[in-house]
């Protein structure tokens, strides 16, 4: 499975909230996935046990598989490989790209955080990373951003390589236009969906509509 969009439009890469209640979250997620707005989902849980991660995968993976939406696990290639998810995303302080690829194999997605470094992105792209992620583009409440970037990094990246890139950090329906226009393959969103005042489904639809408007 790849992370390339079939329609050539910027995709919506949704991250789960850092804490989820498995008694209610799967139904909430199902409603969001059923909007048709989500192109990729990353399970991103922080400060939870391995068992909680596995239980979350067991609940979420069937929802993604039924809709042909890749499920990416953050940080943990060891759990990702054994659990049957489609891929793993690693940052600079997680497992290295080489370790993640060795565990996951060539048939699974391995994405990498590159922050504001085109050099890191180029190096890992040449080694076979399936996508690189740049950010943060805007202030975010989800996590303290290490770096700040502008859409120019996307413009430069897409000029010199075909490796897909993901933009992340504080992105909402109101501010994504310049990033889409710069050529981002995917926009990663957390709060812009889950914290939308009219509900997560409305948030997903609003972002997808804003992507379409910026693509015209």
TrEMBL record:
<protein>
    <recommendedName>
        <fullName>Thiamine-phosphate synthase</fullName>
        <ecNumber>2.5.1.3</ecNumber>
    </recommendedName>
</protein>
<feature type="binding site">
    <location>
        <position position="75"/>
    </location>
    <ligand>
        <name>Mg(2+)</name>
    </ligand>
</feature>
<feature type="binding site">
    <location>
        <position position="74"/>
    </location>
    <ligand>
        <name>4-amino-2-methyl-5-(diphosphooxymethyl)pyrimidine</name>
    </ligand>
</feature>
<comment type="pathway">
    <text>Cofactor biosynthesis; thiamine diphosphate biosynthesis; thiamine phosphate from 4-amino-2-methyl-5-diphosphomethylpyrimidine and 4-methyl-5-(2-phosphoethyl)-thiazole: step 1/1.</text>
</comment>
<feature type="binding site">
    <location>
        <position position="113"/>
    </location>
    <ligand>
        <name>4-amino-2-methyl-5-(diphosphooxymethyl)pyrimidine</name>
    </ligand>
</feature>
<dbReference type="InterPro" id="IPR013785">
    <property type="entry name" value="Aldolase_TIM"/>
</dbReference>
<feature type="binding site">
    <location>
        <position position="170"/>
    </location>
    <ligand>
        <name>2-[(2R,5Z)-2-carboxy-4-methylthiazol-5(2H)-ylidene]ethyl phosphate</name>
    </ligand>
</feature>
<feature type="binding site">
    <location>
        <begin position="42"/>
        <end position="46"/>
    </location>
    <ligand>
        <name>4-amino-2-methyl-5-(diphosphooxymethyl)pyrimidine</name>
    </ligand>
</feature>
<dbReference type="Pfam" id="PF02581">
    <property type="entry name" value="TMP-TENI"/>
</dbReference>
<feature type="binding site">
    <location>
        <position position="143"/>
    </location>
    <ligand>
        <name>4-amino-2-methyl-5-(diphosphooxymethyl)pyrimidine</name>
    </ligand>
</feature>
<keyword id="KW-0479">Metal-binding</keyword>
<feature type="domain" description="Thiamine phosphate synthase/TenI">
    <location>
        <begin position="12"/>
        <end position="192"/>
    </location>
</feature>
<dbReference type="InterPro" id="IPR022998">
    <property type="entry name" value="ThiamineP_synth_TenI"/>
</dbReference>
<comment type="function">
    <text>Condenses 4-methyl-5-(beta-hydroxyethyl)thiazole monophosphate (THZ-P) and 2-methyl-4-amino-5-hydroxymethyl pyrimidine pyrophosphate (HMP-PP) to form thiamine monophosphate (TMP).</text>
</comment>
<dbReference type="InterPro" id="IPR036206">
    <property type="entry name" value="ThiamineP_synth_sf"/>
</dbReference>
<keyword id="KW-0784">Thiamine biosynthesis</keyword>
<keyword id="KW-0460">Magnesium</keyword>
<feature type="binding site">
    <location>
        <begin position="140"/>
        <end position="142"/>
    </location>
    <ligand>
        <name>2-[(2R,5Z)-2-carboxy-4-methylthiazol-5(2H)-ylidene]ethyl phosphate</name>
    </ligand>
</feature>
<comment type="similarity">
    <text>Belongs to the thiamine-phosphate synthase family.</text>
</comment>
<dbReference type="InterPro" id="IPR034291">
    <property type="entry name" value="TMP_synthase"/>
</dbReference>
<feature type="binding site">
    <location>
        <position position="94"/>
    </location>
    <ligand>
        <name>Mg(2+)</name>
    </ligand>
</feature>
<keyword id="KW-0808">Transferase</keyword>
């Amino acid at each position: 499975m790849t992370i390339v969009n079939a329609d050539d439009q910027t995709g919506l890469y949704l991250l789960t909230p850092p804490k989820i209640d498995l008694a209610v979250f799967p139904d909430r997620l199902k409603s969001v996935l059923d909007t048709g707005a989500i192109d990729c989902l990353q399970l991103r849980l922080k400060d939870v046990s391995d068992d909680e991660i596995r239980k979350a995968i067991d609940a979420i993976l069937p929802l993604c598989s039924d809709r042909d939406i890749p499920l990416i696990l953050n940080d943990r290639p060891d759990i990702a490989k054994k659990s049957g998810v489609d891929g793993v995303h690693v940052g600079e302080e997680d497992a290295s790209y080489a370790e993640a690829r060795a565990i996951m194999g060539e048939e699974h997605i391995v994405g990498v955080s590159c922050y504001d470094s085109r050099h890191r992105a180029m190096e890992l792209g040449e080694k076979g990373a399936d996508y690189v992620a740049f950010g943060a583009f805007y202030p975010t409440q989800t996590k303290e951003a290490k770096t700040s970037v502008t859409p120019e990094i996307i413009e430069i990246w897409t000029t010199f390589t075909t490796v897909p890139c993901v933009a992340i950090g504080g992105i909402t329906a109101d501010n994504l236009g310049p990033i889409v226009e710069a050529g981002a393959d995917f926009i990663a969103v957390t709060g812009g969906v889950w914290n939308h005042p009219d509900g997560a489904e409305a948030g997903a639809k609003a972002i997808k509509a804003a992507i379409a408007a910026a693509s015209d």
